[in-house]
Amino acid sequence: MILTHFLIAILLAVLFTILLIPLGGHRTRREEHGAGLAFLFFFLIFLPFIWAGGLWLTPFGPLMHGIAWMPFFLVGLLVMLLLLVTLPDTSNRPRNEDPFPEAEPETTGDEKAVKIFGSAYLILLAGLTILIVASYAGMS
Q1: Considering only CA atoms, which of 121, 122, 2, 128 is closest in space to residue 53?
Q2: Less crowded by CB within 10 Å, the N or C end of the chain?
Q3: Which of 85, 79, 11 is nearest to 49 (CA)?
Q4: What is the pTM of this model?
Q5: What distance in Å separates the CA atoms of residue 75 and residue 20, rounded to the nearest whole number?
Q6: Cβ atoms of residues 47 and 13 within 8 Å
Q7: Can you tell me the distance from the alpha carbon of 133 to that of 140, in angstroms, rounded to the nearest whole number?
Q8: SS3 sequence, 107-131?
Q9: Residues with Cβ within 8 Å of residue 5, at least 6 apart in sequence
Q10: How many CB atoms lie within 10 A of CB 9?
Q11: What is the pLDDT of residue 107?
């Protein structure tokens, strides 16, 4: 029972992650080196949020093999909207501008921001993982 619930929940989370990513794609360039990174960024943010939120919200809506899929979708939609509000709009950037300019030697501020973002993501991922494990521990 728990294994089936786990597989259906992860399937729903992956499905809604893949379906919702293109909705937020207009904020990023679709050039040869930016599309894959943008997809990976969105995927790594969306998946744990959708999975944890879908498990912890009160189930409502239609069922898929005994699991309500509407909470998964609504959490994904909410996370997407929050990311779209906070991410910078790069669609107005001129086409000839290099999207990845060469870093200057004294870019300590950028390096520090990347380290802070990476650390914050890992802390957030650990918290969401604890929520997911706690949800399944409460089922048994």
Answers
A1: 128
A2: C
A3: 79
A4: 0.71
A5: 11
A6: yes
A7: 11
A8: CHHHHHHHHHHHHHHHHHHHHHHHH
A9: 66, 67, 136, 139
A10: 22
A11: 55
Type of residue at 28? T
Q: What is the pLDDT of residues 75-116, one digit of tens each?
A: 999 988 888 887 766 666 555 565 566 655 555 667 888 888
8 Å CB contact between 5 and 139: yes
For strand 63-64 and strand 67-68, is the pairing parallel, antiparallel, or unpaired? antiparallel
Q: Which residues, other chains included, contact 83 with Cβ-Cβ below 8 Å and sequence gap of 6+?
A: 24, 42, 45
For tokens 């609504």, the residue is: 74
SS3 83: helix
DSSP string across 15-81: HHHHHHHHHHGGGS--STTTHHHHHHHHHHHHHHHHHHHHHHSPP-S-EETTEE-HHHHHHHHHHHH
Task: Classify 133 as helix, strand or coil.
Answer: helix
- % of the chain with per-residue pLDDT over 90: 28
User: In sequence order, what are the beta bridge partners of 68?
Assistant: 63
Per the model's pLDDT, the better-predicted residue between 28 and 68 turns out to be 68
